[in-house]
Amino acid sequence: MNTGLLLYIPYRHLENRVMDAIRAAGFEVTLAQARLLQRINPGGSRLTELAEAAQVTKQTAGFLVDQLEKAGYVQRVPDPRDGRARLIHATDKAREAAPIAEAEIARIEAEWEQHVGKRRMTQLRATLKKLCEITDPYR
Q1: Strand-strand pairing, 82-90 and 74-79
Q2: Segments forming the whole domain that contains residue 73
Q3: How high is the pLDDT of residue 82?
Q4: Of the candidates 40, 9, 8, 15, the residue with the CA atom closest to the CA atom of residue 104
Q5: Which of 20, 25, 87, 125 would give a disulfide with 44, using CB separation of 3.0 to 4.6 Å?
Q6: Phi/psi of residue 31, nearest 5 degrees
Q7: What is the distance between the alpha carbons of residues 94 and 105, in angstroms, rounded to a whole number?
Q8: Domain named HTH marR-type: which ranges (predicted)?
Q9: In the chain, how long is the greatest CA-to-CA distance?
Q10: Cα(59)–Cα(47) distance, rounded to whole angstroms?
């Protein structure tokens, strides 16, 4: 099994568990919507920025933002730097899901640490952070 797949399988497990926890708490969002939501900057994001960060077309991002806006998870506001542009902001409703996701991630990481041991988990995190130096285009 290649390293990319070895990284992806645990991530997919984590993502599925987080989505299950969010849905169980009453938040009706799809995985595609959630992936877009988590990429919204605190000060708002332009649609083109979201599309690029989520690696989807501008049309797909626009469709997802339309759905999220109808459900009350985002709002579009004028960009103060450019009156022609709009910024997408997460609403309080969207931000209420964050603690649920964070708590589930903490549970999962604790399970992983119990399974592999504290030292290995610490080494894994340090190694992955080091790899982010050369792989994360948004850092």
Answers
A1: antiparallel
A2: 30-91
A3: 82
A4: 15
A5: 87
A6: -60, -45
A7: 17
A8: 1-133
A9: 53
A10: 9
Q: What digits encode the pLDDT tens for the residues 54-93?
A: 999 999 999 999 999 999 999 999 988 887 889 999 999 9
Are residue 116 and residue 82 in the same domain, yes or no? no
Q: Are residues 87 and 41 in the same domain?
A: yes
Note the pTM of the prediction, 2 decimals. 0.86
Same domain? 42 vs 6: no
Q: How many domains are contained in the chain?
A: 2
Q: What angle do CA 109, 114, 115 make, to 5 degrees?
A: 95
CB contact at 8 A, 47 and 61: yes
86 and 41 in a common domain: yes
One domain for residues 66 and 78: yes
DSSP per residue, 50-89: HHHHHT--HHHHHHHHHHHHHTTSEEEEEETTEEEEEEEE
Question: CA 99, 105, 107: angle at the middle one, nearest 5?
Answer: 105
* 54 and 17 assigned to the same domain: no
Give the residue ranges of DSSP H helices in the chain: 3-24, 31-37, 47-54, 58-70, 92-95, 98-116, 118-135
